[in-house]
Amino acid sequence: MTELKLNLGPQHPSTHGVLRLILELEGEKILSCEPDIGYLHRGMEKMAEKLSYIQYLPTVDRIDYLAGFFYSELFCRTVEKALEIELSDRVRAIRVMMLELNRIASHLLWTGAFLMDLGAVSPFFYAFREREMILKYFEKITGQRMMNNYFVFGGVRRDVFDLDDVDEFLKILTPKLKDYENLITENPIFLQRTKGKGVLEPELALNNSITGPNLRASGVGIDFRKNDSLYCGFYHEPVVLKGKDAWARYKARIEEMRMSGCIVRQALEYLRKDEPLKQKLVNPLKMRLPAGEFLSEIEAPRGLARCYIKSIGEDKPYRLKWRTGSYYAVNLLKKLLKGAYLNDAIAIAGSLDIILPEVDK
Amino acid sequence: MNITEFLKVFEDVAIFEDKIILKRNLIETVIYLRDNFGYNVLKEITAVENDDTSVELNYHLYSSTDDEDLVLSINVSNETESLSHIFDSASADENEIYDMFGIHFIGNEDLKRLYMAEGWVGHPLRKEYQDDDERLDWND
Amino acid sequence: MNYLYHLYIEFLAKHGIPQFWGDITFYIIPLSIIFCALLVIVLALVLAERKLLGFFTQRKGPNRVGLWGILQTIADAFKLLCKENITPKGVNVFLFNLAPALIFVPVMVVLGLIPYSAEFTFMDFRTNILIYVVFAGFPLLCILLGGWASNNKYSLIGAIRNTAQVLAYELPIAFTVLSIIALSSSMNLREITLAQSSSAGIFGWFWVPCILGLIIMFISMLAELNRCPFDLPEAESELICGYNTEYSGMRFAMFYLSEYGMLFANALFIAILFFGGYLSPFGKYLSPMIFPETVGGIMIYFEQVCWLLLKSFLIIFVVIWVRATLPRMASFDLLKFSWTVLLPISIFNFLLMVIIKYTGGIYA
After folding, report:
1. Which residue of B has its CA nearest to A202?
2. Does B88 touch chain A (CB under 8 A)?
3. If exposure means fewest CB atoms within 10 Å of the residue's CB, which of A8, A202, A229, C167 is most exposed?
C-alpha cells in the first residue's frame, strides 16, 4: 500500500479548536503524526511585559476560556505571594466555590464535545442544559458568563449572594450525572470505540509531564489540590482509576464532577454563615512588586498550570511565563497516535481534553 | 533532598535562593537526580533574558513519589545541549524557547518554529526584538 | 389497478384513440401519482427528522419558515436549486452526472412494487419480493459511481467503505426475507399481507413468530441506508462528507432526497413483512361504520392506505429515535458484527420459521 499524507485540518466539525494534525497513513493505520500549532498565538507573554499588573488581569481569563477562573486565581496567587497578602476564610470559600463550579462547567462541555465527536448528538445538548445554570449564576454574581474578571489581588470584587441558586444546581447535578452514566458509560457502541484505545502507561505520562485527569486515569494519584493552601479544609482524596485508556479518562472526569459537587457543597455551607467580607485589596495604581522571582501553581481542569513572574521592582513584570496542561498533551499525541487506526484517532485526541488557547498562549 | 549528598558528587555549583545554579554537566546532573533521588518529571523549562543578552534557563524538576520540587538553573548564550532524549516533554519546551529566544538545542532533531510562521526572522521574546515585519503593515 | 385501466381505455375510446396507444401510455398515470406522493413524503420526512431531533435534544427544530416550520424543506430545496453546479477538473463527466440521475430509479421502482391497498398495487408480479430485494441494493452502484468519478481520494475511501458495509448487510436481509417467504408460502407482497390476516388480530401478524427477524431486519436497514449508528461513510470528520464531497447544488439534493426516499420505502417494506401491511389492527375496517353505504365500500381502500402509512411512520419514528441516542460504530466492528453475529442468527431464524410453518398453528 502506498503512503498517504492526510491533514486533520485546522478546521474541525467539533470543538477541538484550531489544531492541525499532519498524519501519514498506510491504508487505515497511522504511521506518524505531527501536530502543527500556532494558529491562535496571541503573544500573551510578550503583552505582559508592556502592561501593568492590573491592566493585564482581565487578559488572563482568556488563556483558557473554559477555565477562566483558574488562570485568574493563578495570577492573583502569584502576585499575592510576592506582596505577602493572606486571604481571609470567607474569601477562600468564595474562590473555592467559583473554581469548582468552573471545573464542573468545563468537564460538562468536554463530555458533550467528546460524544459529539463519536457521533451521538444528544448528550451535547443535555450537557449544555446543566452548564446554562452555572453560567446564569456567574452572570448574576460577576456580570459575565465567561471571562469573568472577578478575582483581584487580595480578594474578590464583590460578595456573593443568592446562594439558593447554587443549592438548586447541586440538587439536580447528582441525578443528571446518573442519567449520563446510564446513557453513555455502559453503552456497547461507546465501549467499543473507547475501551483499549489510546492506552497511556504511567511512565510515559510522567515522562511527558502529563497531569490532571489524564494522569489520574492511568493510576498515578497526583493531585495538586492536596497541598494547596486555598483548599485547606475543603478537599479530600484524588480520583484515581486504573484503566489507562480513553474510557478511563472519560470516567475519571465524571467522578471528578461528582467530587467537585461535594466541594461546592462544603464551601456553600461555610458561606451561609453570612460573615462580613474582610479583604485587604491592593491599590492598583501604587502597586509595585518587590524584585525577585515568584512561582505558583494550581490544578486546572486540564492539568497543572503554573505562573512564573520575574520582577525588577517596577509596576510591570519583567518576564511572565505560563505553563499549561494541554501543551504537553498535544506533544503526547505524537507518541499516542502512532500505530492507531484512523477511526480511533478522533476518539483518542478527544479524550485528552486539549484546548487550543492554552496551547498557543 | 539531601543537598550535601548532592554537593559531594558535583562541584562547581552554587545554591542561590532555592535554585541550584550549574555551569556545565547539565545532562549528567539531570540523569543523576533522576536515578538517585527520584526526580522523574520535568514540569517546565523557563527562559529569562538577562541584561547582558544571555538567557538563563530554569529546569523545574519534580519527584512524583516524594512530592518535591527542584530548580536547576544555567546561563547560556547561543546553544546548549538538549534533554529531549531523557524527558519527552523537554522537546516541546525547547521548541518554544528556540522559537521565542533563538537558543539552539544540540541533539533535538525536531527543532522548528512552533508559534511563529515559517520563515519568520527574529525571536519575539528577546528584549531587542522590534516589531518591524512588513507583513504586519497590512492595515496601514 | 384494473379499474383505473378500464377508466382510462374508455376515456380514450370516447375520443377515438385506439386501445393500442392506451396500453402504451397508461403507466404514466401511476408513475406521476407515485412521483408526486414521493416528493411530498420526502419533504415531510426531512422536516420530521429535524423537528424530532430537536425534540429529543430539547430544542425546537425549524420553526421560522411557514407555520411550525412546514415550508423548511421547500426553502432548502429551492436554495439548492439556485446554487452553482460545480464540476471539478479531472472528473469523468459522464459518470459524475449519471450517478445522481440514476439514484432515483430504485426509489421509484421500489415504491411501485408495494401494495398500498387491496386495489392500489401498481406492479403485481408473482415474485415481487425478489425484485424489491434486488433494487434495494441498487443505490450502492450509484454511490460507487459517484465516489469513483469524483477524482478525490476522500470520496473514494467513503464509497469503498460504503460498499463493504452494504454488501455485509445484504445477507442477513436475504435470510430474513426467506424466512418470511417460508411463513407465508408466497413471494408476492400482496399475498404476504393477506397471509397475515387471521382471527388473532395483531398477534396474527408476522412480528410475533419472527421477532428475531424483525430486529435483524431493522438493524440491517439502518446499515443499508447509511444511517446512525452506521453512518461512518458519511459523517466521518476527516472524510468531510464521503462520496458526497464533490457534489454541490441540485446533484447533492438528489443524493440527499433519495436517502429519505429509500428510508420511506424500507419502512413500508418492514411494515408489510412484519406488521400486516394495510390490514387494520382491529380486524375490521372502520370506514363502513363512519361513511354511508355507497361510499363506504370505496373508502375502505383509502383507509387501508392510511393504516400502511401509519405503521411506516411509526417505524421511521423509531429510526430517528435511534439516531438521536446512539454514537457511531467504527468500520471494522460494523463488518465483524454483521458476519459473526447477524448472519448466524438470521440462518437460525430461517430454520425456526420453517419449523413453525410445518407444526401448524395460526401461522400455517
Report:
1. B64
2. yes
3. A229
Asked if C276 contacts C197 with a C-beta cutoff of 8 angstroms, the reply is yes
Closest residue of chain C to A123, computed from CA coordinates: C57
Backbone angles phi, psi at A309, to 5 degrees: -120, 130
Which domains, and CATH codes, for chain A? 3-359 (1.10.645.10)
Q: What are phi and psi of A69, to 5 degrees?
A: -60, -35
Predicted confidence (pLDDT) per residue in A182-215, tens digit:
888 888 889 988 988 889 999 999 999 999 999 9
> Contact C325/A193, CB-based, under 8 Å?
no
In this prediction, residue A107 carries a pLDDT of: 94
Contact A121 C57 (CB under 8 A): yes
Does the distance separating the beta carbons of A120 and C325 come in below 8 Å? Answer: yes
Residue of C nearest to A122 (CA): C57
- ipTM metric: 0.88
Residue C327 and residue A12: Cβ atoms within 8 Å?
A: no
Three-state DSSP state, B7: helix
Note whether A331 contacts B89, CB cutoff 8 Å.
yes
Burial class (CB in 10 A: 0-12, 13-18, 19+), A86: exposed
SS3 C90: coil
Q: What percent of chain A has pLDDT over 70?
A: 99
Helix (H, G, I), strand (E, B) or coil at B50: coil
| Cell 529546569 sits on residue | B59
- DSSP, collapsed to helix, strand or coil, labels residue B13 as coil
Query: Is the separation of the CB atoms in B124 and B136 below 8 Å?
Result: no
Q: Using CA atoms, how far apart are residues C293 and C246, in angstroms rounded to an integer?
A: 58
Q: Could you tell me which chains touch chain C, where touching means 3 or more CB pairs under 8 A?
A: A
Domain boundaries, chain B: 3-128
Q: Which residue has the cell 375496517?
A: C285
Averaged pLDDT for residues A46-66: 90
Q: Classify B3-128 by CATH class.
A: alpha beta
Question: What is the DSSP-derived secondary structure letter of residue B131?
Answer: -
- For residues A245 and A186, what is the distance between their CA atoms, to the nearest angstrom? 15
Q: pTM, whole model, 2 decimals? A: 0.88
The C-alpha atoms of residue A71 and residue A63 are separated, in whole angstroms, by 7
Beta bridge partners of B80: B105
Distance CA C43, CA C35 (A): 12
Residues with Cβ within 8 Å of residue C343, at least 6 apart in sequence: C171, C172, C175
Q: Mutating which of C50, C57, C165, C333 best tests the A interface, going by the most A Cβ atoms within 10 A? A: C57
Q: Looking at chain C from residue 216 to 235, which residues have their Cβ under 8 Å from any Cβ of chain A?
A: 228-229, 231-232, 235
For the stretch C121-156, pLDDT in tens is 777 788 888 888 888 888 888 888 888 888 877 788
Chain A with chain C: Cβ pairs closer than 8 A: 64
A327's grid cell? 501543551
Residue from A99, A129, A149 nearest A256 by CA: A99
Strands (DSSP E) contained in chain A are 3-8, 20-26, 29-36, 151-152, 155-156, 292-300, 303-311, 319-323
Please state the rounded mean pLDDT for residues C232-257.
73
